Amino acid sequence: MWDAAIKAARQTFSPEFRGVLWKSIGITLALLVFGWFALEAAAERLVTLPNPTANWLAHLVAGLGAAFGLLFLVTPVTAMVAGLFLDDIAGHVERAHYPDDPPGVAPPFWRGLLLSARFALLVLGLNLLLLVLLFLPGINLVAWLGVNGYLLSREYFALAAMRFRGEAEATALRRRHSGKVFLGGLLVAGLAVIPFANLLTPLFATAFFVHLHKQAAASDAKRLGTQGPGGRLRP
Fold it and tell me: In angstroms, rounded to a whole number, what is the distance separating the alpha carbons of residues 174 and 154?
């Protein structure tokens, strides 16, 4: 797993990733700025007090709350952005590290868009539920890492695996290697809580889980003594 993380980290800043990196960061920042203004506008409409000083303080608190709320938007926004560039990133990784393997096949556009939207909404919904733990220091961080580690590992692994196999087969492969995949998700979730570094999460996570998928497929092939195109197992 650490070998996959090192390879993914190195390639995140490589020349072939540079164009995708800037587009990913640009779209993520644009969406977060839009989210900021949306939250600010909502606060302006909902918070109106007769006393000017109290009104100013209320809007200040609302502004700080909006900034805090953006922390919960970073992960779902980066997850959504990942779906836009997954195939470009995965293709770069496969050509650089697995040139002898058949290339993966991207899912149809609308199918990929649906998977990305489902992923982003699921992450957003569960992170909003975690707000109930806001005033339980320590517990909230552990819960956040656990939930997001599971979600990120499940979805990023599926997105990488489904370039080579159907959804049911990708799920079965993930479950056979659930421990390693979940640890990979915790690593990505840890990156997602670091300011500025979390903007790199889509690129790093996609490259990282491409490597993890290749390792999982190779492990199964070695165990069963058979391997098909692109790491697909033959019965």
Answer: 8
Q: Please provide the average confidence, as pLDDT, over all residues in the chain.
A: 76
3 state SS of 86? helix
Closest among 65, 150, 167 to 114, alpha carbons compared = 167
Measure the CA–CA gap between 217 and 173, rounded to whole angstroms: 8
Query: What's the predicted TM-score (pTM) here?
Result: 0.75
The tens digit of pLDDT for each residue in 101-134 reads 888 887 776 776 777 777 777 777 776 776 666 5
Task: Measure CA 213 to chain center.
Answer: 15
> 166-196 burial, b for 16+ CB within 10 Å, e for fewer?
eeeebbebbeebeebbbebbbbbbebbbeee
Residues whose CB is less than 8 angstroms from the CB of residue 153 and which lie 6 or more positions away in sequence, other chains included = 174, 181, 182, 184, 185, 186, 188, 209
Q: If you search the block for the tokens 């370039």, which residue do you land on?
A: 163
CB atoms within 10 A of CB 22: 10
* Cα–Cα distance for residue pair 198/70, rounded to 1 Å: 12
Domain boundaries defined on the chain: 2-231
Three-class SS state of 51: coil
Exposed, middle or buried: residue 59 (CB in 10 Å: 0-12, 13-18, 19+)?
A: middle
